[in-house]
Design goal:
alpha+beta; Glucose Permease (Domain IIA); Immunoglobulin-like; 8-stranded antiparallel sheet; 17 helices; 22% helix
Length: 801
Amino acid sequence: MRTNKIKKLTSLTLLSIFLLNTTSPITALEASSSSDLIYPLKQISKLECRFTDFGELNSDCKEDLPILKTSDYQRYATENGGYNKYTRLYTVLWGSSYKYGWDVGNGGHMGVDIATAKGTPVYSIAEGTVIIASELSMLGNNVTIKHNINGKEIVSSYSHMSKIDVQKGDKVKAGTKIGEVGSTGNSTGNHLHFQIDIDTTSSPAYYSYESCPYSYYKISEEGVCFGELEKLTVDPLAFLETKGAILNNITTTTKVNVNKNTSTTTNTNTNNQAYSIFDRTVYIGYSSDDVKQVQNIYRSLGYYNGPISGDYNDVLESVIDYQVATKVIENRNSTGAGWFGPATRTQTKKDYEKYLATGSTNNSSDTITEVTNVNSTTQKISKEKLMTREEIEAKEVEEFIKGYNIDLKFQNASSNVALGKTEVLKLTVTDKRNKPFIGNMPGGMTFILNTETASVFPTKLFNFTDGKRDIQVTGLKEGITKLYIKVGTVTVKTFDINVFNNTKTIYPTTSSIISPNSITIGDSQSAIGVFKDSNNTNLINVPFGSTFKLVASEGNKVCIKTGTLKNISQVYKRRCDESEFKSEITFTYKDTISGLLIYDYKAINKNAKFEIINTYNNQILATKSLKVTEPKGLANTYEYKNDVLTMLEKGVATGINKGYFLENRDLTEYDAYLWVKNSLVSLNTQTTDTKAKTKITNNIKDIEAEMNKTSKYTSINRGEFLAMTYKYLVINQETIAETKKYRDLNEAENKLATYVLGNKTFKDQFGESYFQPTKNITRGEATFMLANIFNSYNNKFLTLK
């Protein structure tokens, strides 16, 4: 039975015990000189760079650790309203609260927190022996080292590291790299928790439940056990600043407690708060504060000598030892083994009360080491006028948002999620140079929505390894919920999540057309048709029913483009070929890209209007009217302006470039054949002669075959274009009475010029006498020649007699 067997007394609050006192130095290690002490960090990240991994930083983003002197605590606590380099770097001082960080003497923080980038090297402050090198529940990856400084034994701890570089038992020197800064354990950002224990009974030191039976909040935020803190630890910055001289205030007393099975003291600290732990079950995964109380209790009863870590795994075997020893369970495999459950709590409470009442019931002597911090001169800092950590973090979040681009897009281009299905929200974070963000985001990013309608995973994240994360949204119940994305408390993006039932047919009730509001005559542009339901929700990636028509007003044309979401940008940029344009096109959901109607429209008529119509009830879902303008730079004084406009309106001339017709640019071979082909198409709509239509159709086929051989970069001259227009466009080649007399054309060539130009001539200074057949023809001049084919004088050549 171990019920009454107390291995060691750790409480510093037991009074009136029979003591035998001796004072002696501790020589567990070879003593180190105070001159060998160094700071645990050498180079750190600059504040503006600390959210990026240390290994990713260049020299401009690194600096030597700025040293904070204890005499400057009061100064920097309020400088610039409390938002300055030191309050942002040394985020929580020794003896401060987590809320304010710099209210020394008003909290219970056992060390100092130093913020820097993940991966920043951490070094041993002095020669010593590693006694812990493992992951602890609350402290994360932790290294604890025992030192002897000028004959006094102390312990240094380095917590929340991302990496541990030493092992338990290793001998280290001042400056030995022991790990790297991280955010493991109970941590919300990359930092080093650095702690100096002067009571080395159990390290990393933490408050004993017997001597400090208060809630975690009262200890950490109200400083109810600050006196206990001064017995267990010293201010790490004061320790380093004085090169260990602060230890001269420390005395170590060995106390021998002689027990004669008689009650020698009564601990009156048995309030309801201290005993509340016996009213609730504790096990793995339960409150870390409760776990710490359980660890402290079993340490007092002599069954546990591990760290007060808040991790139940550390105390599990000790609880089982106690249960078996007190016959709460029969053996280690019994039901309830390891649980701090009702039966275990009842027995433990009895033994713990007996322990508090008597201190010990062994006939043996228990030796206690008590450390006293004499002449303690801690200068307390009032919370008044201090910024809270939340307020400082809010400013850091604001700076982060200004310095980084946060892009969130659904992979399927919409926030519609099918019931029972999962969609991916792509998150990308880059700096202003488009470099991926690698590191921990201040405040973290949270995702909030109505969890009855949809779920989101993860709900919160801090760390980025390549600037990208995939966020999963799953539909749980039909309906709409808003998804809020926040950095800290700042909302950076919202989405309306529409959870739909994909087993039901949904019918659009309206649509919208997204396109520019104006267009140059003869030009074509891309547009997007978006369909909506009765809730005005965009039906993207939501299969909908019915058949629709895309209709262009008289003389104008449209062309639907298809593809996939993956290449939708390429589909949008692609321009339809002239042969693809039609005045009206019927389509269904299958002809869209996941519900998005991507199409080109061409304005040939000055009255340009486009409509999307539901053929089921002929309901017009969307209408778009455009302002049609003349080409830029086409001056009223330009001699062929009317010809240019006429050919654009007939759909003959093409090649509008950013609103310009470029009338003085040379016509290319390809455009020459294209314009002649367009002329044939237009002429075919004007003639009713069957033979002429047949001839025109054959000519179109011939010219299409020739077009495959042409160049889009080689120019064509006037003589070549004259021969082409005559060959394909002059259908009725009847004898004419009088031909033109151009001096630089022979009789046959003059005959061709007469058929094509009639009584017109080029409007340059040589036009009356010289055709200039070897001169490259301009785009404007080509419209002049083609316009003559359509005028009333030459219509007689369009009919086969």
